[in-house]
Design brief:
31% of the residues lie in helices and 28% in strands. By secondary structure, it is of the alpha+beta class. Strands 1, 2, 3, 4, 5, 6, 7, 8, 9 and 10 form a 10-stranded mixed sheet that branches. The chain is globular.
C-alpha cells in the first residue's frame, strides 16, 4: 500500500485590514499570510476500496464534519463527476496545533489533504481547480494550497506572492475561544481601512484592526498581548485568540517563552515563505511516493 506522510503548517496573519463589506455579508480583507515551521502531521494510505477512513489523535475532532474528511469527499465527488475510477484512503491526523486560535490548523489540514490525494490518487486536476475546491472549505484554505507567503485580498482568496522577513516567533495561546462570527458582526468593528498596494505593505503602517475589539471583549487576550509586548513587537493573528511576538533569534524567543505565565501555552517557530508541503510533494513525486517521515 502506498503511504504519504505530510505536514500541515500553521500560518500567521502579519496584519489584517478590513476594507469593506460585501452585499453577501462577507468582509473584504487585506492581509499577509506567512507559514510557520510548526505543524500538524497527516498520514495518507491509499485503499483498494473507495472508502474514507479517518483517525485523529484528538477524539473530539474525529467526526464527519472534520475538514480533512470534507476535503477528501470533495475530491471523491470531483473524480466521480469526471467518471474516474473511485478510490479510497485512510487518513491519520496527528493534531499538534491549537485549534480555533487563528493559526489556520483546520484549513491547513484540509489543504494538505487535497494536495496529498491529488498525488496519491493521481488525479488530473489543476491547481486552479484545487484552489476553487479549497475555497468551498474555508477562506484560508487557498493560501495553504498555493504554498507561498502571500498578500491576500477579497475574502482571502486573491493571492499575490510576497517575501516577508523570516524572524523567530513566540506564539502564545491564552486559552480563550473567540467567536469569529461575533467579531465580524460587531457594530464597533473597523471596516473602512484604506486599501494598500501588495508591494507597499511593509512600508505602510499596518495593524490587526480586530485587535482593539478583541482586547475589549476578551480580557485574557489583552493580558497576554500586554505581557508579550514587553519582550517583542506583538500582534494578534487573524481573529485570534493566538498572538505572536517577533524575535531576532531563537534564543531570545525561547527566553521569553520560559517566562510565560503558566495559565497560557506557547511555542517558538520560524517564519517560512514556502510551505514544506510543496517541497515534500515535489520530492515525493520524484521518489515515486516513497514514505516521508
Amino acid at each position: 500500500m502506498e503511504t504519504l506522510v505530510l505536514p500541515a503548517p500553521a500560518k500567521l496573519n502579519l496584519f489584517l485590514h478590513i476594507t469593506g463589506q460585501r452585499q453577501d455579508g462577507y468582509h473584504e480583507l487585506q492581509t499577509v499570510f506567512q507559514f510557520l515551521d510548526a505543524h500538524d502531521s497527516l498520514s495518507f494510505t491509499r485503499l483498494a476500496a473507495p472508502v474514507l477512513e479517518f483517525q485523529c489523535s484528538d477524539p473530539k475532532l474525529e467526526n464527519d464534519d472534520n475538514l480533512v474528511l470534507r476535503a477528501a469527499r470533495l475530491l471523491q465527488n470531483w473524480a466521480q463527476a469526471k467518471q474516474l475510477p473511485p478510490q479510497g484512503v485512510r487518513v491519520i491526523l496527528e493534531k499538534r496545533l491549537p485549534y480555533g486560535g487563528g493559526l489556520g490548523g483546520g484549513s491547513s489540514d484540509a489543504a494538505t489533504t487535497l494536495l496529498a490525494l491529488r498525488q496519491l490518487w493521481q488525479l488530473p486536476i489543476s491547481t486552479a481547480k484545487l484552489l476553487q475546491l479549497g475555497l468551498q472549505l474555508g477562506a484560508d484554505v487557498p493560501v495553504f494550497i498555493n504554498g507561498y507567503a502571500a498578500f491576500a485580498e477579497g475574502v482571502g482568496e486573491k493571492l499575490t506572492p510576497v517575501t516577508p522577513t523570516s524572524p523567530w516567533y513566540l506564539v502564545v495561546d491564552p486559552k480563550v475561544h473567540i467567536s469569529t462570527a461575533t467579531i465580524f458582526q460587531h457594530p464597533d468593528l473597523q471596516r473602512n481601512c484604506a486599501p494598500i498596494a501588495s508591494n507597499a505593505w511593509q512600508s505602510q503602517q499596518t495593524e490587526n484592526v480586530i485587535e482593539p475589539l478583541v482586547r475589549r471583549l476578551y480580557p485574557e487576550v489583552a493580558n497576554a498581548l500586554d505581557w508579550l509586548v514587553e519582550y517583542a513587537p506583538t500582534r494578534l493573528t487573524g481573529t485570534g485568540a493566538c498572538l505572536f511576538g517577533s524575535f531576532e533569534s531563537q534564543e531570545m524567543a525561547r527566553a521569553a517563552l520560559a517566562r510565560m505565565p503558566a495559565q497560557w501555552t506557547g511555542f517558538v517557530a520560524r517564519g517560512l515563505n514556502e510551505s514544506p508541503v510543496c517541497q515534500l510533494l515535489r520530492q515525493a513525486s520524484t521518489d515515486n511516493l516513497t514514505n516521508h517521515n
